[in-house]
Structure formats: C-alpha cells, structure tokens
Amino acid sequence: MSITETAPAKLNLALHVTGRRDDGYHLLDSLVAFTVLGDRVRLEPGPLALRIDGPFAADLSTDGNLCLRAARLAGADAAITLTKSLPVASGIGGGSADAAAVLRGLARMGHALPARPERLGSDVPVCLSSAPARMQGAGEILTPLPPLPGLSVVLANPGIALSTPQVFAALDRRDNPGLPAIPCFTGLADLATWLAGTRNDLEPAALTLAPVIGQVLDGLRTTGAAFARMSGSGATCFGLYATADTARIAANALKQHGWWAVATELAPPLMPR
Ligand SMILES: C[C@@](CO)(OP(=O)(O)O)[C@H](O)COP(=O)(O)OP(=O)(O)OC[C@H]1O[C@@H](n2ccc(N)nc2=O)[C@H](O)[C@@H]1O
Ligand SMILES: Nc1ncnc2c1ncn2[C@@H]1O[C@H](COP(=O)(O)OP(=O)(O)O)[C@@H](O)[C@H]1O
C-alpha cells in the first residue's frame, strides 16, 4: 500500500522581521498561505530510501535531504519518492513542505509526529497543516486563520537560488514593527489593500543580492497583478490576479524571459486543524 501527500508551496504574503534571538535566529511576523501547486511525496513500506523525480530533481541530492531527515526524526522507515516541482532554495519552503508531507504521510501510516518538527526547519511547523496562519517567533508560534479566498496566483523565479542565511545577513534593520491586525479577507481587493500596508522585510536585502528580482516584480505588475511581492528569502515572487485566465496569460508572458513561471491558486487547508 502506498500513501501520497502533496507538499504545497508556502507563500509569505507578508513577512516582517521584528528582532533577533540570542542564537542568531530572527523573530518573524508573517501571514503565510499555501498554493495548489506543490511537490508530491509517495511513501511505501520498506527500508528508509529516497528517490527523486520531477522537473527540479536534478537540483537536489538525496544525501541530507529533508525527506530522509524527517523520517529519521519520526523514527520511521519508508521508501519515499519525491516528485520535485518547486524550484529549490527559492523562498517557497519546498524543503520544509516536503519534510512536512513525509511527516503527514508517516502519521497516516501510524507513526507519531515528532515533538519538535521545527528542528527540521523553521517553516516545517506551518507546512504541517499547510493552512493559512500567522507565523511568529522563529516560525514555531502559529495562529490559525480563517480560509483565504481561492485567488489566482502566479509564481515566478528568475532561476537563481538564494541562500536564506545570506539574505538574513544582508538586512539593514532587524527591529521592525509587527504586522497590523489581520482581518477576515473576502476577496482580492481587500487582501491587496491590506497587503499594501505590510512588507516583506527580506525583499530589499534579496534585491541587493539579486537585482533581477526587481525585473520579476515589474513583470508581474505589468501583466496585471493586483499585488506582487517576493516570498520568504526569495527569489520566487508571487502575483495575485483577478482571474485564472489573466494569471495563465501572465505566466506564459513571464516564461518568455526564460524564468520559471506558473499559474496556480491559493489552496484550501490540507489537514483538519
Ligand atoms: C525565511 C523563511 C520565512 O518563512 O522562508 P524561506 O525563505 O526559507 O522559504 C523561513 O523563516 C526560513 O525557514 P527555513 O528555510 O526552514 O530555515 P531554517 O532551515 O530553519 O534556517 C536556515 C537559516 O536561516 C536563518 N534563519 C531562519 C529562520 C529564522 N527565523 N531566522 C533566521 O535567521 C538562519 O541563519 C538559519 O540557519
Ligand atoms: N526536499 C528538499 N527540497 C528542497 N530543498 C531541500 C530538500 N532537502 C534539502 N534541501 C535543502 O534545503 C535548502 C532550502 O531549500 P528550500 O526549502 O527549497 O528553500 P527555501 O528555504 O528558500 O524555501 C536547499 O539548500 C536544499 O539543498
């Protein structure tokens, strides 16, 4: 019997850096959402093993892979197949999403979830439920939010992998104010208006390391995004579009630059809270 779990891409719709802990980790305040597009993991009974296929398989090694580390943390064996559809090291939590998907799959096979999933990565706790949340602390403090409207989204990445620690190290300030109160959003208009009053504090730092991110953001805006921003530590950017058709046309236009670009939607929650 095999078990399949999707590993949705994580979007930091807003990401404020509010401080730094003594161990060097940064304090965050983030509105996190997930997309229908994601990686996929398949688990089958057997000794612990990992096989990777899919469009971005060549960018990843099985050694030290978060899928294997997740299974080891759960103390479980399984033959894992990862289908890698998300670009690696790109600010949309692919590795954390894969680790969380393995943990969810192992839970369905009867294994307990590990007590401290954040040991695998700061984004793993939020990826476990893959549901909209306010994420604080270094990623371990989660406040579930009501479902977000099922909006059309374009994800675009110029084909460069950014190192998360390097982006944090390039920050000018680490003591920014937190997010304003998060209302219950009803559609694109009120979400875009609220987002316009927030920031991704990692975006200016990432832009200094990879100025091409500015071109990606311009590309999303000129193809009709009502709102565009970088996710996480980059370099993937997202645009929110009024319709699935405009998102699809925008993604096709952005691909002409040689960038990875895909139209998808904000996802409904994967696991009951
Ligand atoms: C920035 C965020 C925002 O959601 O997303 P991504 O860009 O990774 O998608 C995450 O906090 C990243 O989470 P994750 O990628 O799991 O990072 P981790 O493996 O825990 O940490 C990698 C490194 O990033 C830095 N780091 C990470 C999280 C945090 N709150 N403060 C940090 O300073 C540390 O230098 C750490 O050693
Ligand atoms: N299954 C995995 N998918 C993606 N990255 C992984 C995986 N396992 C280990 N990694 C490593 O984790 C790092 C962060 O990758 P990823 O989670 O995709 O990016 P980000 O943290 O920017 O969202 C990469 O350097 C990558 O080599």
TrEMBL record:
It is an enzyme of class 2 (transferase). Keywords: ATP-binding, Isoprene biosynthesis, Kinase, Nucleotide-binding, Transferase. The active site is at 10, 123. Residues 185-257 form the GHMP kinase C-terminal domain. Residues 69-110 form the GHMP kinase N-terminal domain. Transmembrane segments: none annotated. Pfam families: GHMP_kinases_C (PF08544), GHMP_kinases_N (PF00288). Its EC number is 2.7.1.148. GO terms for biological process: isopentenyl diphosphate biosynthetic process, methylerythritol 4-phosphate pathway; terpenoid biosynthetic process. NCBIfam families: PRK14608.1. This is 4-diphosphocytidyl-2-C-methyl-D-erythritol kinase. It comes from Paracoccus sediminis. The gene is ispE.
